[in-house]
Amino acid sequence: MCGIFGIISKTPVSKTDLNILAKHSQQRGKDSSGLFLYKNNEYYVHKADYPLTKLVKNVAPYSCSIVMGHSRLITNGLSDNQPIVRDNIGVIHNGIIVNHEGLWEHIGKKPQLEIDTEIIAAITQWHLESGGTVEDVSTTVLKLCQGVVACAVIIPQLGKLLIFSNNGSLYQGDKNDSIAFASESYPLTQIGCKNINQVKGVRILDIPKSNNSIYSEKQEIRKTNLIPTLTTSNFEEHLLEYKKVSIRRCTKCLLPETMPFIKFDADGVCNYCNNYKLRNIPKPKEELFELVESYRRKVGNDCIVPFSGGRDSCYGLHLVVKELQMKPVAYTYDWGMVTDLGRRNISRMCAELGVENIIVADDIEKKRKYIAQNLSAWLKSPHLGMVSILTAGDKHFFRHIETVKKQTGISLNLWGVNPLEVTHFKAGFLGIPPYFDEKRVYTHGISKQLRYQYLRFKAMLESPGYFNASLWDTLSGEYYRSFTKKSDYFHIFDYWTWDEKLVEDTLDSYDWERAVDTNATWRIGDGTAAFYNYIYYTVAGFTEHDTFRSNQIREGQITRDKALALVEDENRPRYPNIKWYLDTVGMDFKEVIQAVNAIPKLYPY
Ligand SMILES: NC(=O)CC[C@H](N)C(=O)O
What residues does the Glutamine amidotransferase type-2 domain cover (predicted)? Predict the structure, then answer.
């Protein structure tokens, strides 16, 4: 999530160290920035709506002996920035406190800001007012708050700085006679810290006492709303079509005649069924235990779990911690299309399992602008084979995982990818035939990739708007997705059966949040899915859900009738989610939906 850091020294901080720490923090969030400083016997807060490295340059706090920084991925409260100050207590926080709204009543106080972080200062004050000790502040905060709390709490009146976390996204190290902390260990090694250790629990440091108010510089409020509040209208909701389509389907699974490259045999069974090889047959778990043995470490984390916050990676993280007994780092790439709910589930799981979360956050405004450019181009010449351009930006996930491996020194990756999630059809609509022997692969053959690029280029020529600033972003992401060598990785679901009921029941035990607009639990952390599935359904009469449920039928997990009933429910347009998507990319709901509805259907109508 956000990146936080601090240097607590008796002499002016090193400019080089400060720049390194600020730069690294920015990897974790770059929506806004903040500094907390001590100079001339006073504490100061500076906040800005631009990157932290720029703020450091502008404020130039090089004569200060205490500098703390915050590089924010905004999740709660757009109108506030960090550090927050309340009752003259300063806080910088990484994480999302998922129950903050309910806590205000418990402590008998009222929020003054929108941001969840404020509750940390308020609980601290409440604890101290009720006669609690400084030593126990963190226990009280962590007992009450659900979700990740990795923070620094500055109490000038008492001359104390507390740094604490419930998931380990916080490290501390020594350098000469100063102390430094950061969200990750890597920048601390870069500045040459010794005795670097992970902070799970609390460290209490002495800082100069001051009874004066923390001086807070007025902040600018950003213009682009990165976390729009949902405003709904019946008019818009009614624009969304959901027509029952009468369409020929495979007699065994649900795939319809509009599925690319589908062929039915004399019994009406499709080639996807006839070529299907069972996927959900786990190998003995002992094999995986043996494979990972040499990666285990006595101290520190030993594997990376790619972590989107969706149901499969959340369940995978649970298995890695609870069953495989490993100490993972959960790696998340936030490109601006992780839903608020997805972010909250990331926070819940990491806090509950005590797992460090390394997040790489992209330039969210830019990424969303790219989506808007591509969506506008798409709407000018709608082509189902080009829908995937809307999610091209997330492929940089594969680039950043390499950075995370390098920075943590951990090579082992354990993936929780659902074996039944196969969506051939997206490239199928572009003209790429299904490759039935495919397992879950992360590397596509070069020739397949070239063919894909060729067909896509042809489709792009139909709408010149595709040749926009995002093109390099798309191509470079795909390059990393397809061509970088992947080593030291295993799939959790090669060893544990993927059983939907078990997955959902397990996640419920973590209070995993479900979506308000669908009964489905798949893809609810992905802000793009509701919209692209709306396109597929409206034009082709099926969605990803049909392909997923069809695999479950083939695996013998559910009957065809049950699957049919499920997709009828799951394919319903998800208005709040589609609205969120179009709001975040800044597109007009009515215009976009009317354009989608007007696309000629692929089925008799
Ligand atoms: N990404 C984060 O860690 C967010 C911290 C806090 N919830 C905020 O919105 O600022």
Answer: 2-210
Q: Considering the domain boundaries, does residue 485 fall inside one?
A: yes
Instruction: List, for residues 442-471, the tens digit of each pLDDT value.
Output: 445 677 778 888 898 998 999 999 998 888
CATH code, domain with 103: 3.60.20.10
Instruction: Yes or no: say if 324 and 538 are a contact pair by the CB < 8 Å rule.
Output: no
Is the predicted pLDDT of residue 268 greater than 50, yes or no?
Answer: yes
245 and 190, same structural domain?
A: no
Is there a contact between 350 and 329 (Cβ–Cβ < 8 Å)? no
Query: Closest Cα to residue 270, out of 291, 290, 285, 249?
Result: 249
Residue 72 Cα to ligand 1 middle (Å): 6
* CA–CA gap between residue 49 and residue 33 (Å, rounded): 6
List C-alpha distances in Å: 46 to 5, 103, 179, 219, 225: 15, 28, 22, 8, 21
Q: Which tokens belong to 604? A: 């008799």
pLDDT at position 520: 94
**Percentage of the chain lying above the pLDDT 90 cut:** 80
The pLDDT of residue 438: 53
Choose which residue among 47, 73, 101, 114 to substitute to test ligand 1 binding: the one with the highest number of ligand atoms within 8 A of its C-beta.
Answer: 73
Collect all residues with Cβ–Cβ distance below 8 Å to 178 and sequence separation of at least 6.
7, 8, 9, 10, 11, 13
Report CA dihedral (405, 406, 407, 410) to the nearest 10 degrees: 40
Query: Domain range for residue 314?
Result: 234-597
Mutation pick for ligand 1 pocket among 25, 72, 356 (CB with most ligand atoms within 8 Å)? 72
Kindly give the interhelix angle for 529-540 and 544-554, rounded to the nearest 10 degrees: 80
- Tokens 């070529």 correspond to 275
Q: Is the pLDDT of residue 102 over 70?
A: yes
Contact 205, 159 (CB under 8 A): no
Q: Are β-strands 150-155 and 160-165 bridged in parallel, bridged antiparallel, or unpaired?
A: antiparallel
Residues 164 and 250 both lie in one domain: no
| ipTM of the complex model | 0.95
**Is residue 604 in a domain?**
no
Our count of domains for the chain comes to 2
pLDDT, tens digit (0-9, with 9 covering 90-100), for 558-578: 999 999 999 999 999 999 999
Structural element, H or E, at residue 16: helix 15-26
Write out residues with Cβ below 6 Å of ligand 1.
Answer: 1-2, 29, 72-76, 82, 93-96, 115-117
- Are 343 and 309 within 8 A, CB to CB? yes
Nearest to residue 332, comparing CAs of 354, 352, 349, 319? 349
Neighbouring residues of 554: CB distance < 8 A, sequence distance ≥ 6 = 252, 253, 273, 276, 278
Answer whether 497's CB lies under 8 Å from 283's CB. no
Helices (runs of H) and strands (runs of E) counted in the chain: 22, 18
Return the DSSP state at 360.
E
**What is the value of pTM for the model shown?**
0.94
Least confident among 200-204, 240-244, 474-478: 474-478
Instruction: Among 78, 96, 167, name the best residue to mutate to test ligand 1's pocket (greatest count of ligand atoms within 8 A of Cβ).
Output: 96
Same domain membership, residue 180 and residue 276: no
